[in-house]
Design goal:
two-stranded antiparallel ribbon; mainly alpha; 363 residues; elongated; transcription termination; single chain
Length: 363
């Protein structure tokens, strides 16, 4: 039966990490607490993790025949029905026809895997999202890490940054990363001490082109009325990595199409910038339809309370509307949705009491 390997899983399924490359939780935490400015090579040398240096290969104390007899290799197998299963196959030496001879991992691949393991990044997942990582030299990855550390990021931050944006691992420090940090300082007025805060909040900023994405988005947002660029970067950096043509402009036009003027739609997003992060089909449309059809509301309600779109339809809007309806109580949208569960129950109880008093007075 032929063996099929996916690019993402190949390196991990065919060449599983030796035990010396595995980190216990305690060892992993110790690695994260190292000084952020320490070069990775020095970090490997100083850590207590029993690792093999990248220039060395893992030597086996067993004879070739004994070692081969004890190898267990996990490989994905594809059946005739195209179903995928994971099979653990023991490879004995007694039967040459069953032997699976695997090449040694190059030292550079070991170095990359070890580096990413220490940072908390899954190599297989990163490789699937960024195939260029396969041919990247460890030295280039170390250069990216050192540069980010020099800009205030800590070693413990790298797992989140590279996990969300593996393309940063193969970015050019000079052509890609330096312009982003210059943009943060010069265009947005973010002090260097706050660069880390922006990157941690939105790692995608490191993967965006200043010329093609970040600056056009900033210009568009400024034209809408976002005047405080520093606050924009610190509080809503995701807007800077959103496409003007595919994301920002279409959502603004959809809001205006609900029956309000464009100026009213702009006023809504200025009050609630998170509106730019919501999906038209999964958020705006079903929630507005429920507001109109089930609640008897309309466009004036969302103009007055744009945060309506930030609440879950299934978990907050519909259940509370039904509860208020069953109680015969009418509550303003902000009061109904912003209150905690306890506060909401208290409001219903008070409104019921008022209704009962009014009914008794009428009778």
């Amino acid at each position: 039966m032929p063996l099929h390997f996916t690019p993402a899983a190949c390196i991990l399924s065919v060449f599983p990490l030796p035990s010396v490359f595995k980190l216990s939780p305690d060892q992993s935490e110790k690695g994260r607490d190292e000084e952020p400015g320490m070069p990775l090579c020095s970090f490997y040398a100083s850590t207590s993790v029993p690792v093999v240096k990248p220039q060395q290969s893992v030597a086996s104390s067993k004879s070739p025949s004994t070692a081969a007899a004890s190898v267990a290799t996990t490989v994905p197998m594809r059946s005739a029905a195209a179903a995928t299963a994971t099979v653990t196959t023991a490879v004995p030496t007694a039967s040459p026809s069953l032997s699976l001879h695997l090449p040694e991992l190059p030292s550079q691949v070991k170095d990359k895997i070890l580096s990413l393991e220490l940072m908390g990044v899954d190599y297989g997942g990163a490789l699937e999202l960024n195939p260029a990582l396969r041919d990247a030299a460890p030295e280039s990855i170390h250069a990216v890490v050192s540069f980010l550390q020099s800009r205030g990021l800590q070693f413990k931050d790298l797992g989140r940054v590279f996990g969300m944006c593996p393309s940063v691992l193969t970015a050019s420090v000079r052509a890609d990363l330096r312009p982003v940090f210059a943009f943060l300082s010069e265009d947005l007025g973010v002090p260097e001490s706050a660069h880390r805060r922006v990157v941690i909040k939105c790692p995608r900023v490191l993967a965006c082109s200043v010329r093609d994405q970040l600056r056009p988005a900033l210009i568009y947002l400024r034209r809408l009325g976002f005047r405080d660029s520093r606050a924009l970067a610190l509080q809503d950096p995701i807007l800077l990595v959103s496409s003007v043509e595919r994301t920002l402009a279409p959502k603004l036009e959809f809001l205006a199409g609900l029956g309000m003027s464009r100026d009213d739609a702009v006023a809504m997003v200025l009050r609630c910038p998170a509106l730019f992060t919501f999906s038209i089909e999964r958020n705006y449309r079903p929630k507005f339809e429920y507001l109109v059809d089930a609640m008897g509301g309309g466009v004036e309600d969302v103009k007055a309370f744009p945060q309506y779109f930030a609440f879950s339809l299934e978990k907050r809007i519909a259940p509370r509307h039904r509860a208020a309806e069953d109680a015969g109580v009418a509550l303003p949208l902000p009061d109904m949705l912003k209150a905690t569960d306890e506060e909401f129950r208290e409001m219903l109880d008070k409104e019921r009491e008022l209704l009962q008093e009014q009914t008794a007075t009428t009778d």
